[in-house]
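@channel anyone free to eyeball this complex?
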Amino acid sequence: MTSAFTGAGADYSEKIPNNVDLREDRRLQRALESWQPNFLNWWDSMGPTLPTRDVYLRTAVNVGREGWAHFDHVPMRDYRWGIFLAERDTDRRIGFGQHLGEPAWQQVPGEYRAELRRLIVIQGDTEPASVEQQRNLGATAPSLYDLRNLFQVNVEEGRHLWAMVYLLHAYFGRDGREEAEELLRRNSGSAESPRILGAFNEETPDWLSFFMFTYFTDRDGKYQLGTLKESAFDPLSRTCEFMLKEEAHHMMVGTTGVDRVVERTAQLMVEHDTDDPAPQGAIPLSVIQKYLNFHYSVSLDLFGGETSTNVANYYTAGLKGRWSEDRRKDDHKLTGDAIKVDALIDGEVAQNEVSALLGLNTDLRREYIADCQSGVNRWNKILESAGLPQRLKLPHIAFNRKVGAFAGIEASPDGEILSADEWQQRVGAWLPTDVDKTHVRSLMQPVHERGKIAAWIAPPRNGINGKPFDYDYVHLT
Ligand SMILES: [Fe+2]
Ligand SMILES: [Fe+2]
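replying in thread with the prediction:
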């Protein structure tokens, strides 16, 4: 390959770039090479629809601390989707559960095979799903900078699919290969074969949704990967560790994307001394709040029920740990510990004490909620420095839930429990209505001209890889 890649950790002379010595295992190499055209067919038919000549993309070339990425203009289809695992720690020990302190597994133990495969498939299913959800957004990008970020997220989600498919092929034999095919066969929003998780079947029809999705839903991914990074199954742990590195960019796109929408709205509110800057071409704060309510609540559902015996078993077995497992000051077995989880008791929102193992979903969801709050604080600072009294806020945990203790009730964003009728009457004030969506969509006029930006969003403070905002990030055809 080009000189830029020589000496790097990954082997780019191979059809499938990798740092797992794929050439040493001809069977596996052949199996993955025969999956590759199926992946490319999927990319062609379900990936980004906007035709481009090339895009200024980051490609992973190493996994080490210093310099793991290479930036260049590449045709998107020629992006080198590869297999990268974080460096192996040969002394790694299992950090929790009944196998605490034993050496990490380099192979899948027979008794955990089905569970591990399931965890990998569920994670793997979300990766291509988001590419499918976002496929039409290029046509309405607010700037070339944003367009480039969208495509970067898309190619990396494609690579995350590769990461999971590698594990399926390498460690799960024939049923692993079948699962890899299924990952390409299911499609977001499909009536016959939808993606596994609800939030990944919702559409991402506009850029406000995209930023909310990358803030709230990709962040769920970050937390899931964080628990899998702790896994006793070392190849899974190392895979997820490296995925988290790429995921940081997706978080940045969401965080700063919402920043910039809020900033622009605040600016026009002040300039025109109005609460409703829609006539000036901005997205009103009330609409931003509704989008936030929607994406946050569907993302909370991704963490599952408040209690789960499956997840308790995964933890005890060593398959899936907690967020920041090594920073927790307890015995990492949790057999005698308890946790308070949210519950519906006599029709009221309340809390219930359960064993810490049973409440692990709640533990992870709470870490996630605290992280989400930090984004809201940041957006509120933007409003504050603009001199505006309005604030954004996370809705109550019971609001708009379809999974868990509050799935059967309706609650307002303040946590007031409502009858079905009341909910119907008031939901339009809390979740995006057709009118809101139509307004947002009407603002989504493409700006594909270098250095220009749409009126509903502020330009970014920094470009990509030290390049200015007006850099030619994307060449259209
Ligand atoms: Fe991902
Ligand atoms: Fe992501």
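from a first look: Strands lie at 52-60, 69-74, 338-345, 348-355, 410-411, 417-418, 474-476.
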